[in-house]
Amino acid sequence: KLSYEEQDINLIQFGIGDLHMPVGWGAIPYNKIFRILKNYQGVLNLELKPRFKKFFAYSLRRVKELTESTSNNHKLKEISPFSKHDN
Predict the structure, then answer these.
(1) pLDDT digits (tens, 9 = 90+) for 42-67
(2) From CA 60, how far away is CA 54, in angstroms rounded?
(3) pTM of the model
């Protein structure tokens, strides 16, 4: 039986693992996704690897821009107090 990590690597596109890169760096079509979710009122979870710490604030700003540009005047209301981002 494969470990979780081995399954993860085999199941992730391109076979290179779950990279958790800054928003917009990979091949994920964020503009398209946020347009599809334009009226979504739930939680958005942003997860980056520690090696991208200096890009936490950039990624948060990018998610805010995507949310606000693809929604019907929706603004992000708050950031979790448990967030580890740097402003």
Answers:
(1) 888 888 888 888 988 898 888 888 88
(2) 11
(3) 0.60
Burial 47-77 (b: 16+ CB within 10 A, else e): ebeeeeeebbebbbebbeebbeebbeeeeee
The domain spans of the chain are: 20-87
Give the per-residue pLDDT at 77: 58
Phi, psi values for residue 5, rounded to 5°? -65, -40
**Distance (Å, whole) CA 85 – CA 87:** 7
Query: With left for phi above 0 and alpha for psi between -120 and 50, is residue 18 left, alpha or beta?
Result: beta
Whether residue 34 contacts residue 66, with contact meaning beta carbons closer than 8 Å, is answered with yes
